[in-house]
Design goal:
Blueprint lengths: L15 E5 L4 H12 L3 E6 L3 H13 L3 E6 L5 H15 L2 E6 L14 H25 E10 L3 H4 L5 H20 L6 E5 L7 H4 L4 H8 L10 H12 L9 E2 L7
Parallel strand pairs: 1-2, 1-4, 2-3, 4-5, 5-6, 6-7
Helix pairs in contact: 1-9, 3-4, 4-6
């Protein structure tokens, strides 16, 4: 008797994403969107376990898979453990979304140098550490997504220290894209404009927020969901977008 052909469909390997700063704001929006796209997600957080657990709960309640893993993005040992956790739980890493960041605003002449050092540590060293792990761990065919800011191009007063750190992120992104030649790994940066997150809104009065919201032709602030759509695009179908900075800002020049 001849064997009947198998009716089982081949299974597609599960894709796995690590999202730094994934417990809130743009990071959380990105984590939830990638989970909805079918990724298993590792939600990295700096210190607020309650928010990280809430992000994981939201993902699992919607039918996705996620775990939370604490780690300072500027600490190479802690970030190695984040990637270890991803490999233990889900078998590997395909996408890294580095959304963690800090921002302190002041005119250059008044900027506190300790605050500048904190931004450098998280935004520059943190990106370098995360990207270093990503370059070592992301499976061929994967994606690395960093976060810059539209203020790099807008040159807004008060943003000199923050914009300087994000300029460094853009430089690292473009160089890493070229260094990973031959592995089919894309490396891009998303540069949001004014987005309604705690990081952006903190310390701004209503008049300032309204003025910034009016800059875009769409006449509103962005939302974490808006930015997560760009992350989803880069992590999914955008295989021919590489070594680029996408300014997701509603049309601000």
């Amino acid at each position: 008797m001849s064997e009947q052909p198998s009716t089982e469909q081949p299974t597609t390997p599960r894709r796995v994403a690590v999202v730094t700063g994934g417990s809130r704001g743009i990071g959380r929006g990105s984590a939830e969107r990638l989970a909805a796209d079918g990724f298993a997600v590792v939600v990295n957080y700096a210190g607020n376990k309650t928010e990280a657990d809430a992000a994981v709960a939201a993902i699992t309640a919607a039918g996705g898979e996620a775990i939370a893993q604490q780690g300072d993005v500027a600490d190479e040992t802690a970030m190695a453990e984040v990637f270890d956790a991803a490999e233990r739980a889900f078998g590997g890493v395909d996408v890294v979304v580095h959304a963690a960041g800090v921002m302190t605003l002041a005119p250059l002449v008044d900027t506190d140098l300790d605050a500048l050092d904190r931004m450098h540590r998280t935004n520059i060293r943190g990106t370098f550490v995360v990207d270093q792990q990503a370059a070592r761990r992301v499976r061929d065919g994967g994606t690395i997504i960093n976060f810059s800011s539209s203020v790099v191009a807008l040159a807004l007063p008060g943003y000199s220290g923050y914009a300087a750190t994000k300029g460094a992120v853009e430089a690292m992104t473009l160089v890493l894209a070229r260094e990973l030649r031959g592995r089919d790994i894309t490396v891009n940066a998303v540069a949001p404009g004014p987005t309604a997150t705690a990081l952006f809104l903190d310390g701004k009065d209503e008049a300032t927020v309204a003025k910034l919201a009016a800059q875009a032709p769409l006449e509103r602030l962005g939302t974490p969901r808006d930015i997560a759509e760009v992350v989803s695009f880069l992590a999914g179908p955008a295989r021919w977008v590489n070594g680029q900075v996408l300014r997701a800002n509603g049309g601000i020049a």
